[in-house]
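Structure ticket #2291
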Amino acid sequence: MSREVLTLKQHDKSLMGYLNNLVRYTVMALAVLMAFVVLCGVVLIGVELYETLRDSPDTLLSISGITSTFASFLAVLIAIDIFINISLYVRRHVIAVRLVVATALMAVARKIIVLDFAGIEPVQVIAMAAIVAALGFSYYFLSRLKEDQVVNDE
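Resolution: structure written out below.
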């Protein structure tokens, strides 16, 4: 009977090892894909800026042009933050909670920057303000903690 239990435990260990390797390779594939997304984003911003300057330089200096450019830059910065999160997980097997909150804050800020406030209800503005406040407070409190309290190694 004890031999069967031992075999089962060894089987569980090998299964968990296989699953851990599967997750590790999946996360590495995600890192490669995210690096590709960042590279494509930078190239697209460069092409967009070049074409705008070539065709109508005054469009770039308009409020809508600046807003569009900021939105593109912030999208790439969000992708970079996601890549950093993935690479931290690959290297240290941790999820950096503070970085996740900062990325979420940047994503919400990007959404607010590109949002047309003429077409939304006041309650939606209040909801966005509440989200920003919650993320801001979360980031503030996380930044006050020591790193070993925020990051939990598995």
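Closing remark: The helical segments are 2-55, 57-60, 63-92, 97-114, 122-144, 147-150.
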